Amino acid sequence: MAVSKNSRIKDYIFLHISIMIFSFTPVFTKMASIEFNKNGIWGIKLYFFFFLMLLDCFIYALAWQKNIQKFELSVAYANKSVYLIWSQIWAVLIFGEVLSIKNVIGLLVVLIGVLVVQKYE
């Protein structure tokens, strides 16, 4: 059964939105850690961020199961590495971290690797 180009594009969009959603897990983890350092186990935000982290993982797990039905496993996992790019974006935008040249080079290597795998799908 042939898959239309529009359908394939939608599949990739869903895959990458799923990966972007999963990239919030370390954000919630870091926010929980910050709250723990401020207020210990009594900080209510600690449990809120912990809940968000678990919810994020749950949503991603469901989405991942849908995604791997539509792609070869090697392609899905290659695209999953884009998670590193999203994580760096959130680190800069949310936590004000600074990317080093090594970070940027590493992210470019990841992106090139994903594109190479895509080319041979």
UniProtKB/TrEMBL annotation:
- InterPro entries named in the record: EmrE-like
Does the record bear Ribosomal protein in its keywords?
A: no
Q: Respond yes or no to whether keyword Membrane is given for this record.
A: yes
Membrane-spanning segments: 12-29, 41-63, 75-95, 101-117
Q: Which UniProt keywords apply?
A: Membrane, Transmembrane, Transmembrane helix
Name by which UniProt lists this protein: EamA family transporter
Species, as recorded: Blautia parvula
